Amino acid sequence: MRRGLRDSASSGSSGGTASSYEPQATVVSRAGKGKDAEKAKGKSGRPAATVKVRNRSGATDTYLADMNFQDRDGLTLTSGRVDVRVPAGKSRTVRVPLDDPLVVGTVVRCEVVSVL
Predict the structure, then answer these.
(1) pLDDT > 50? residue 69
(2) Would strands 109-115 and 61-70 be described as parallel, antiparallel, or unpaired?
(3) Residue 17, pLDDT score
């Protein structure tokens, strides 16, 4: 099973140099106030961000996506993580629940820390 590292901010931008086969992650919707918060709860009722994970390799793989949820000052309030199995060359959209759902009202930014 091949695994890689890729950083991605809430805007979908990424930093560093990476192999063209490493996974890529983009925040689709954040957990926070307003409409995003209501959408992010989904069927489970638990606040979460929605992330699109793209497998750019030639084999199906399972990735662990780690996220930070930050306040307006950029301080990390809580984190979250999720496993996602993605077919070769495809993308999968998943929900990443907050480890501490009580802080959702102060979350203004969600950041993908890593996808391994």
Answers:
(1) yes
(2) antiparallel
(3) 52
Question: CA 87, 91, 48, 72 torsion: positive or negative?
Answer: positive
DSSP character string of 43-92: TTT--EEEEEEE--SSS-EEEEEEEEEE-TTS-EEEEEEEEEEE-TT-EE
Q: For residue 36, give Cα distances in angstroms to 43, 49, 66, 69, 90.
A: 14, 9, 20, 14, 25
CA-based nearest residue to 97, from 27, 33, 41, 53: 41
Contacts of 108 (CB under 8 A, 6+ apart): 30, 32, 33, 70, 71, 72
pTM score? 0.76
Instruction: Look at residue 75 in the predicted model and tell me its pLDDT.
Output: 97
Do the Cβ atoms of 54 and 24 come closer than 8 Å? yes
